[in-house]
Hints:
Keywords: Membrane, Transmembrane, Transmembrane helix. By secondary structure, the protein is an all-alpha fold.
Amino acid sequence: MKAFKLENEPKIESGFKIPEHYFENFSEKLMHKLPENEPKVISLFQKNKKIFMMVAAVLIIALLVPVLYTSTVNVNSKEIDTATLESYLSYQSNINQYDLINGLETDEINNINTTIALEDATIEDILVSNANLEHLIME
Length: 139
């Protein structure tokens, strides 16, 4: 076998040629090509901050309205309903006692007669405390 003599063999030249002093001037050329004023970076959260705040406020209101509404209505519901119903039946309705009796069936009338047991003292107290005796007598 022959001995290899690499120093004497023709060398293959690369296909890429670099201009002279290319790497010495590279950083200067690159800095000239870059823009001098970099744009201010705005994050996604800061850009949509108002939208996030509005959505959070709507959610809080939507969750608090049912809680606050049910708590205030349940406290006074029996008192309001009783007072409203009583005043409506006394002053606003055009229904008299005969219309109410005609609307009831005989079973309901018998049930009312058996379940209501008032003492004389109770009836006297109601009549004394009621200021609309004339209204009751007229009916």
